[in-house]
Design goal:
Structural class: alpha/beta
Shape: globular
Bound molecules: pyridoxal-5'-phosphate
Largest sheet: 7 strands, mixed
Number of helices: 13
Strand order of the largest sheet: 1-9-8-5-4-2-3
Amino acid sequence: MQTFSKSFTQQEPLPEAAIEAAVAVMRSGRLHRYNLVEGERGETALLEQEFAASLGVAYCLACASGGYALQIALRAAGLQPGEKVLCNAFTLSPVPGSIHGAGGIPILVDIQDDTTVDIDDLRRAAEESGARFFLLSHMRGHIGDMDAIVAACEELNIVMIEDCAHTMGASWRGRPSGTFGKIGCFSTQTYKHLNSGEGGLLTTDDPEIMRRAVILSGSYMLFDRHLAAPDAESFGDVRLQTPNCSGRMDNLRAAVLRPQLAELAERRERWNRRYRVLEEGLGQEASIALIPRSPEEDFVGSSIQFRLPELSRERIATFIAGCERRGIPLKWYGQHEPQDYTSRYDSWRYLGNTRSVPNTEKVLATLCDLRIPLTFDEEDCMEITRLIGEALQESG
Ligand SMILES: *Cc1c(COP(=O)(O)O)cnc(C)c1O
């Protein structure tokens, strides 16, 4: 049996410019973001400035992780302990975790067959719960109808926060993902679109939210050392009223991120070329239903998802095992025991009794996911589709 031998979790090495910048920071000894010498702006503040410019927003805060960015986004937006927060039921564990960490109660919202949020259910959930906040994950990079989502949130008087862990570099109708909500949150963890091991970025155009976020992240009284935050003089009372929940980014991570940010558009092209090969190949299989992509969506194809709507659980399990034997670790969201990572709402038992989300249940039962690291080339992607086809045949 032919097998695929490359690793699905191996990312590319960092660019030489990133390595050099990291070495320079280490030689300086000034790793803390606020440890600056006369006239120095620092890698972290420069990263914030460059990321804000890349999205066309006023403010950006770099912090310890994507999950941390979500947590302080909720707090900076005014979430009070015990308040309810809507979130789409198909997401990754740091999303309900960040709501929980910020003192909120996650309220699940159903998804549609294309995995994006079901706006009718969003309305129902908002009305039932009275929630004032909606944490929208663009899960696996699928962007819903943003005009309709934004309109629904406005009508329901809901503050929307975007989780862009899978849409950094993506846009919808030419507008960058992360700029539709009050706040955008991004991750620079190794498996996302930029790699600093761990890291997060929070963006907003709202000066009051940004002031709170800066203090929450642990700026002490050094907020004047930011380049993508409101003027230091405007921090007035906020600096005394906001708790310090340290979760800053350091200059070492920022140094490796800046050269990668400059490559993001090119990475998107490379990802999408690979995605198109997989999409084309998998599209040939009668039992595979690809997730349709709207022409409004300029996505980053760093992973691909498909459903097997006609196949029994048993047959899907056999198919997954066949892929595994061929060196292809497909993620199956229908698996009851969480493995590797969890995106099943029923693995988050601390949520207690949640709303029922029958379509999420139905979609996840047959949904599969494949990572597309840039260490694969287009031929690898062709080989993968061939082996997946073989495993499908063999399974039934
Ligand atoms: C990765 C991820 C996050 C944030 O993850 P961190 O590991 O905390 O950086 C948030 N949401 C989704 C959907 C993710 O995949």
